[in-house]
Amino acid sequence: MDDTIEANGARIPKLGFGTFELRGDLARARVQEALATGYRHIDTAQMYANEEAVGAGIRASGVPRDEIFVTTKVWVDRFRDGDLQRSAEESLQRLGLDDVDLLLLHWPSPEVPLAESVAAINDVQRRGLARHIGVSNFNVALMREAVAASDAPLVTNQVEYHPYLAQEAVRDELARQGMALTAYCPLGHGRMFKEAVIRRIAEAHAKDPAQVVLRWHYQQPDVAAIPRTAQAARVRSNFDIFDFELSASEMDAIAGLARADGRIIDPSDLAPAWDNGD
Fold first, then answer.
1. Per the residue annotation, which of 39, 48, 161, 218 is the catalytic one?
2. What's the pLDDT tens digit per position in 44-91?
3. Label partner for 113 (CA 20 to 30 A): which of 26, 72, 238, 271?
4. Would the CA dihedral through 252, 257, 259, 265 be positive or negative?
């Protein structure tokens, strides 16, 4: 199986390392550890307040820049034309990079017209500061609006996705647009690890439940997963998913855990009207 997703010209590594809530020396050390382990996809954001530490971890790893897919995200308070471009420049300064592989609009903004933000992020790409652009936490209607407003192809929508949250409507629209789904919170904070089906599959493959769930993500051709952990041992074990394969029936059994109340991340001041059946 290919370790990357091709999405509108981007090649996105299917297993990445997320850095939400990691700060300072811890963020630097875990990014360095992730790259030493074999991850080649690192995800950060302006709102995480760790871009400087993430950049330091990338440099300390010794892995050539052209081997690493780096994503960052623009926070909603910088969505105005002009300010968004300046924020991208500031992100690059903090990261110590000439460009990022992917720049995302982090959440829909209730204050700034989407067309204005999309035009601004297109300008960032035209100026060579981001190789690809996309969105995060967008519902189907907002994805369609963003695609229609964008001169450049959008390559992903980064959303919460795990066995408890099916995201069927979003996934169908992403497929229509040739976009990838980037799954944050891919382990659902471990909430499904005690499910009998997960434990049975883990025992059958001599793996732990997190590895089973990450393998479930990995075997979906349109999904990249970016698990986050503060533990060095877990950084390594989360990457240890390439020596086994889930059967079609195991994949279906895990997907069958989806439920109506599966969503975990739902901030009232930012979340759009989520699609039915997600």
1. 48
2. 999 999 999 999 999 999 999 999 999 999 999 999 999 999 999 999
3. 72
4. negative
In the chain, what's the furthest Cα-to-Cα distance?
54
Query: Residue 150: left if φ>0, alpha if ψ -120 to 50, beta else—which one?
Result: beta
Instruction: Locate the domains of the chain by residue range.
Output: 4-191+213-244
- One-letter amino acid for residue 234 of the chain: R
Cα–chain-centroid distance for residue 183?
5
CA 201 to CA 210: how far, in whole Å?
A: 11
Give dist(CA 123, CA 89) in Å, integer.
12
Residues 6+ apart with CB under 8 A from 17: 30, 31, 34, 39, 41, 42, 43, 226, 227, 228, 235
The DSSP bridge pattern shows strands 17-18 and 223-225 to be unpaired
Q: Which residues contact 113 (CB under 8 A, 6 or more apart)?
A: none
Contact 215/246 with Cβ under 8 angstroms? yes
Rounded to the nearest 5°, which phi and psi values hold at 179? Answer: -100, 160
- The domain made up of 4-191+213-244 has a fold known as TIM Barrel (3.20.20)
What is the distance between the alpha carbons of residues 2 and 140, in angstroms, rounded to a whole number?
Answer: 27
| Catalytic annotation present for 184 | no
- What are the pLDDT digits (tens) for 117-135? 999 999 999 999 999 999 9
